[in-house]
């Protein structure tokens, strides 16, 4: 349990998903955020296999173009697909339709299976596009891009502060965890373990709150009175327009494929 | 050293108590004049940090008054003006550095003071240069070493051009090299300072005056200060 937790706490310490430099990195962060949001919207609301599969194909192409580290990307995709697997197992039995087979009086239907597969394809397409377009920028760039897109200040600050302090809190967690190990603490399934882990998280919570108070004090000391300034200017260049137009036309094609009898 | 008659910071009859710890500060009187570097000594938990936080108004005194640059401070707004002129350096640099990059963090103060972006950038770069932290502008704050973090926090305070520096254990967790560097920087600064430090050698080299905080009373401590100077 601690292993997985340590992983999830540190794997996103404010840095972008590891990858080699590619032309996708040069595209304006706002364009990337908007494009992936629209892509998600279109793909998720698609009803047929053709547009979703096309979306998945496009996602694969973007992953290739952004030169993502395939191993790390696969690990993340598999994590989601395990969840999707339960969906594929459950949905055929709960959707009425033509029977494939029957287990213990429960009938699996073709319609349910197709529906589950459709959802899986959609989820993978959206996830891969997010990986290639959004996760390739550092978290603070994402915060700034959101701020420029007029996302409420409070949410942006929440994100930026989280990025900054996730690492500090995870350090604190590891420090305490090591202190426990130094006194021969081993995770077991007993009352002592539950209690100790409970203390650990309680203490982590208290320390985080206290740190938040100190940070707020430190900000006040430097004249903070509610406004937070972002230091960057984002300019949209012609390349961003080209990318946006190509991407949007592709999305319009997907929408068109969803309309019955258009083709 | 020329002492002007007007104290920069003056505290009169300050009282403070924590809910379950009893009185931490009892009728504390204190004045800081230009050119002074006052070191406050005291045991752990004697209330030194509390005193510093009371001076800049992060905690509200139960009784007594704080005068900052001749003006009595009561409201948040008055303390806000005081804080711009009296820079507080926190014990833990991680509390102070909250922006992703060094430059953004140093710029935060000037922007709050109403400078525009370009002015803030220029001022920040100038101060970083002065502290020998050139080229650190786009570094990620939480990836700096302890000594670098300390220098950047000092820059974030100095960039606001304070008249008084308040240092809460500045040498905490610094190695000898970083300590020596910090000491040289501080000795070269013209600002009056209030310093808390458990590092005797460090504080002895900085202090022009020593004070002792014990059982909630702040008293002048003349002879020990001289002893330290003889040692050095």
UniProtKB/TrEMBL annotation, chain A:
It is a multi-pass membrane protein. InterPro entries: ABC/ECF_trnsptr_transmembrane, ECF_CbiQ, ECF_transporter_component. Its main location: membrane. It is found in: Cell membrane. It holds the Pfam family CbiQ. CDD domains: EcfT. Keywords: Cell membrane, Membrane, Transmembrane, Transmembrane helix. The chain crosses the membrane at residues 38-62, 74-93, 99-119, 126-149, 241-259. The keyword Transmembrane helix applies. The keyword Membrane applies. Belongs to the CbiQ family. This is Cobalt ECF transporter T component CbiQ. It comes from Psychromonas aquatilis.
Automatic annotation (TrEMBL), chain B:
The keyword Transport applies. Pfam families: ABC_tran. Keywords: ATP-binding, Nucleotide-binding, Transport. InterPro entries: AAA+_ATPase (IPR003593), ABC_transporter-like_ATP-bd (IPR003439), ABC_transporter-like_CS (IPR017871), ABC_transpr_CbiO/EcfA_su (IPR015856), ECF_ABC_transporter_ATP-bd (IPR050095), P-loop_NTPase (IPR027417). GO terms for molecular function: ATP binding. The keyword Transferase does not apply. Gene3D superfamilies: P-loop containing nucleotide triphosphate hydrolases. Residues 9-232 form the ABC transporter domain. Belongs to the ABC transporter superfamily. This is ABC transporter ATP-binding protein. It comes from Psychromonas aquatilis.
